User: What shape does this take?
Amino acid sequence: MINNSSYRCWAEIDLSALRENLAWIRHQVGLKAKIMTVVKADAYGHGLKEIASHLMNCGTNAFGIANLKEAHDIRTRGEGWPILMLGACIPGEMEYAIQQNVMVTVSTPEEVSSLSRIATQLKKQALIQIKIDTGMGRLGVDISQAYDFIKQTLKLQNSTQSVAIKGIYTHLAAVEDDEKFTQSQLTPFRSLVDQLRKENISLDYIHASSSGGILFENNDLFNTFRPGLITYGIAPSGVRNQTAKIQKFLVPALSLKTRVSLVKNISAGKTLSYGHTFVAPGAMRIATLTAGYGDGYHRAISGRGSVLIHEKMCPILGRITMDQMIVDVSSVEGVSSGDEAVLIGKQGKEEITAALVAEWADTIPWEVLTSISHRVRRIYLGITAS
Ligand SMILES: *Cc1c(COP(=O)(O)O)cnc(C)c1O
Assistant: This one.
């Protein structure tokens, strides 16, 4: 029998936190702006279907995604929501995107012609957003050619109606760290937006800012925002970040938990785990936990991180293995099999943030969240019956 108390590793997701974070984002961007919440990678590991349907009730205006399976999953929870595919479509995807009214990101005239041709065959219109490369380099028409490309595509739109330009956008490459570089991206993009305004070309979606841009930039000319990380309650890390200040306004939605399976005493000289990298300096009490890198808890944290048991920080000893890890509970009273251990989240006054776990793992909080693996059960809390 499997019930809550026998999960070995699970994530608790507080839906009311997402509601609060979205309300705070709304406050930042204003009532008229469109919030396109980014829910790629299974809603940053929180579970796409549940998060998408919850966000639909919390004031999101649109969704940003990375593949069409995600579009399908969102459509199963609510029809008609604007969805933007943030990556470039590969040829086999275009037909489905057009049929499902998913907005497609385009960077080249070739993509526009393919979409126009397929849309004509399907007797539909391809909804597109033109991506403009101002320094990220991954996608987009170079800013120097953006104006001509937009005008040319508008001509096609007016003559055939096979495509409709719903928006233009760019992506900032170093917004958390490099103010000067960010301005070198935003200044030409703003000029382009200004020029289009002067010509009375109005677009539903004009945007540049993900979480970092929302927090640090002047967004006056834009009508749409693409928050990912802050929606889930985590302030992005970087040198421009006043993490503590921003984090106060955000509520982390996800906690990652596991259990103690075994407690034992060891004596000085005893070695622990693969590679016997840890050697006990004296007598200790240790606990084995039922989570490992197979749950997406990075092996790089071996010997560096801690977990919370009975509201105390317990250092991880030796290497993290696929399904288990060992922690030091010498200074914690009364630990026994079945006790909860927190890998990410709060216990009493103590807290382990995703940002701290990222630091231990030499990575970023985005990767910590999206690494949480499939076998980790997601449990949703804070839902009011609707
Ligand atoms: C992932 C992504 C976002 C969201 O970024 P956060 O830093 O998580 O807010 C926004 N825009 C694009 C193009 C993305 O790929």
